[in-house]
Design brief:
- By secondary structure, the protein is mostly helical.
- 56% of the residues lie in helices and 0% in strands.
- The protein has a single domain (10-69), classed as Orthogonal Bundle (SP0561-like).
- The chain has 4 helices and no strands.
């Protein structure tokens, strides 16, 4: 099962499943296409945006688990 961690680069996470983009954007991280996303970890971006990286990781991993069931 694919899983993400807050230490992962955002672009690497998106390469696992493009559906992750919607989760990031819904959480308030609208810069998934910006150059920073190519080298910034989820944790770093979460700090910049004032978001809880652990919550986002949990939501993404739940999404990935559900996607694998289909």
């Amino acid at each position: 099962m694919a899983q993400v961690t807050k230490d992962m680069i955002i672009a690497d996470m998106i390469s696992i499943d493009r559906g992750i983009i919607a989760i990031l954007m819904n959480s308030g991280m609208h810069c998934v296409g910006c150059p920073s996303a190519q080298g910034e970890t989820l944790e770093e971006a979460s700090i910049v945006h004032g978001l809880d990286a652990d919550e986002i990781v949990s939501e993404i991993n739940s999404y990935l688990a559900e996607s694998e069931k289909k």
